[in-house]
Amino acid sequence: MTREGTGKTVISAIDYRNYLYANHQKPCRLLFIAHREEILKQSLACFRMVLKDLNFGELFVGDYTPNSLDHLFMSIQTFNSKEFEKITAPDFYDYIIIDEFHHAAAPTYQKLLEYYKPEILLGLTATPERMDRKDILKYLKDLRWTRGGYDKSELSKVYTGNDLRAHDYKSVG
After folding, report:
1. What is the CATH number of domain 6-140?
2. What kind and span of H or E run contains 58?
3. Is the pTM value of this prediction over 0.85?
């Protein structure tokens, strides 16, 4: 049995590590959202491995309560039940990752997506098209989708920072 999402999570951890290196003067607060405890545990372990820091991050799901909010791996259910947005500012998190982002159009994600204004919002999904046809791309950068994938030249510009959108993360959301 393979672990679901392992490749996406590794890439997101590497991207976050690069963000840390480029922004070492900032707190670089991370919020990782998923809908299942098992995914959060696997993701936290992945980030610890990539960052080579066995103490990185904390879980906020089920019976787990964090001591710090700076690098949090939280379930969307916990976010909503604890009214988490009431204890953090809209710009508290610099980097937010939402696993299984195709769920982002669901009502349970709206409060999170409308409230927070991270520098980077990263949505992870293997299935960007929703069965109910609700738009999830409105939360992400405006990249052209052609022939079953993003326009590679536009994606390359954003990834390398040679595009104005790469410098305007505050507009995400």
Report:
1. 3.40.50.300
2. strand 58-60
3. no
